[in-house]
Amino acid sequence: MSKNQILEEILKEVDKHPEIMSRREALKYLTLSPLAASVIAGTTIGTSEVSASSDVKGKIVIVGGGLGGMSTAARLNNSINNADITVIEPDPLSVSYQPGQTLVAGGIWKIDDIQYNRDEFVPKGVKLIKGSVTAFDPKNNKVTVDGTQVIVYDQLIIATGVMLNYAAIKGLDGVITSNGKDNAATKNTITKDGLHSIYFQDGAVATWAGIQELVAKAKAHKGPEKLQALFTEPNTPIKCGGAPKKIMYLTHARLVEAGVRDKVELTLYPDGGKMFGVPEYHDAIVKQFEARGFKWNYKHNLVAVDTATKTATFDKWRMEKTEVEDEMGDKIVKEVKVSEPVQVKYDFMHVSPPMKAPDVVGQSELGSQGPGFVTVDKETLKSSFFPNVWSLGDVVGVPMGKTGGSVRKQYKVLVNNVISAMGGKEPTSKYDGYTVCPLITGIGTVMMAEFNWTKKPTPSFPLDPTKERWIMWLLKVYILKPMTMYGMLSGRA
Predict the structure, then answer these.
(1) 156-188 exposure pattern, b = at least 16 Cβ within 10 A, e = fewer
(2) Which 3 state secondary structure label does DSSP give 292?
(3) Residues assigned a catalytic role
(4) What digits encode the pLDDT tens for the residues 246-289?
(5) The pTM is what?
(6) In degrees, to the nearest 5, what angle opens at C-alpha 217 toward C-alphas 215 and 218?
(7) Which of 423, 427, 415 is nearest to 377 (CA)?
(8) Positive or negative torsion for Cα 399, 402, 407, 411
(9) Cross-strand partners of 437
(10) Does residue 204 sit in helix, strand or coil?
């Protein structure tokens, strides 16, 4: 898309929320701000037609037609003459703008603002199979679709996304959704009576209704004890690791807006022992929590929910040194995990579910133990076991990177390396672990947390990345979606 087309798409987003900013104000900012200009330039660079530059041959199969899969298909299609690419994807809404689910849950956007039809983003010439892969056979370069159709490939790219494993929490048995796709059992549990989750579309809509119910309940509350709002983080890697905190910040903002913040206690229960893996961002978040009067309890993993009594049970854990015997009968000191159950009542609770690879991936020769993410070299994104298999996005087994910002870096590396492999060369393009979390800290402020394998801040702009900024709110709410939907999905941003 051209600069003017990108600007128009951004202004369409602005028009949906005139209470935050007028079109006139936005246009002034977007045309005069060096930061906005640099982001738009980065979105439009290379958006003119790219001439195919490679004559490599081979059948490429991409499993998963979400952001990672479709962006990869488009870039490969732009880069290879007469490319033979097939995307396998069952969900017609697979390319929905998932980062926007937090904004839907906070009452900033409507669900229609993030829903897109997958078929509108299939690159010209790319074949689409509307089905699910039910078996992988990497030794014979085959996948099976819906139990019957066998597809042969030369290069396989896995971009399935993850499963939201609510079933791992007792009381939510049978509740599993995949890649944001809704599940009837989920709707009957995590969408009402104060129990919510933004990780699937109906859940995001219900969370906004739940926040409004909490506000109404707080207004009517007369007792001396505060209402309890809990926010959980699980013991597995999750996509958009900042989402549990984002919805906590937005709940706080809505309670402040309604004048009832003093009637509600907001508490975060993370399984880990810190707010963020990067020390600078950890310190910044602790200060933000203190300023807002939030509470937090580290090393608490949600293991059960009693919806009838509104009781959450956490595994509170710690590491203790204990003396044990080794295989030779000698006594050694070893650290062991010790846990105890802790029950907490809630009036409102946001559940961030444990996550894992789809079973068809995790139980194949491609997945790892435990969550089952695809085992790859973290830099080239090539399978550790099969030289013609690759992976990216939420399902890839790298130490970090389950965000759309990571995919934006990963898919370019992967395409370069797939083309090299098809040409008989070793892959040399490397993913540096870049990821970004636009941490929404309120209605109008965002801390743009960017980092890579070094676990040090790696800001894209010459600004202190640990600070909450209005300018980053504009980037998050108005610019990133057009950049994603029309830049990445064309394979050029």
Answers:
(1) bbbbbbbbbbbebbebbeebbbbbbbebebbbe
(2) helix
(3) 240, 437
(4) 999 999 999 999 999 999 999 999 999 999 999 999 999 999 99
(5) 0.91
(6) 65
(7) 427
(8) positive
(9) 449
(10) helix
